[in-house]
């Protein structure tokens, strides 16, 4: 099983909630002011962390695929 995180940047407001919740997975790009993924394919044992990131986004633009 593999994990894939994605951000729909069209809806990203740059609020940084994802980065504050999961700083190992997300950062905010200095130029665009939007989120960037540091780890688009976290290892399976980081499922809980990835799910937390999805929940942290008030815009609902972070998605997680498994498998
Ligand atoms: S929490 Fe969502 S809207 Fe906020 S910076 Fe992260 S991806 Fe963008």
UniProtKB/TrEMBL annotation:
State the source organism's domain of life. Bacteria
Task: Specify the signal sequence span.
Answer: none
Q: Does the keyword Cell membrane apply?
A: no
Any Pfam family from its record, for instance, is Fer4_15
| Gene Ontology molecular function | 3 iron, 4 sulfur cluster binding; electron transfer activity; iron ion binding
Keyword list (alphabetical) reads: 3Fe-4S, Electron transport, Iron, Iron-sulfur, Metal-binding, Transport
Q: What InterPro entries does the annotation carry?
A: 3Fe4S_ferredoxin, 4Fe4S_Fe-S-bd, 4Fe4S_Fe_S_CS, Fe-S_cluster_ET
Which coenzymes or cofactors are required? [3Fe-4S] cluster
Entry annotated with the keyword Iron: yes
What range(s) does the 4Fe-4S ferredoxin-type domain occupy?
A: 3-31
* Role: Ferredoxins are iron-sulfur proteins that transfer electrons in a wide variety of metabolic reactions.
Please identify the protein, giving its name as recorded: Ferredoxin
Organism the protein comes from: Streptomyces broussonetiae
Taxonomic lineage = Bacteria, Bacillati, Actinomycetota, Actinomycetes, Kitasatosporales
């Amino acid at each position: 099983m593999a994990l894939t995180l994605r951000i729909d940047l069209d809806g990203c407001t740059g609020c940084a909630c994802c980065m504050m919740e999961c700083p190992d997975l997300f950062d905010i790009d200095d130029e665009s002011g939007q989120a960037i993924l540091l780890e688009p394919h976290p290892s399976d044992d980081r499922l809980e962390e990835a799910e937390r990131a999805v929940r942290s986004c008030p815009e609902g633009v972070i998605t997680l695929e498994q498998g």
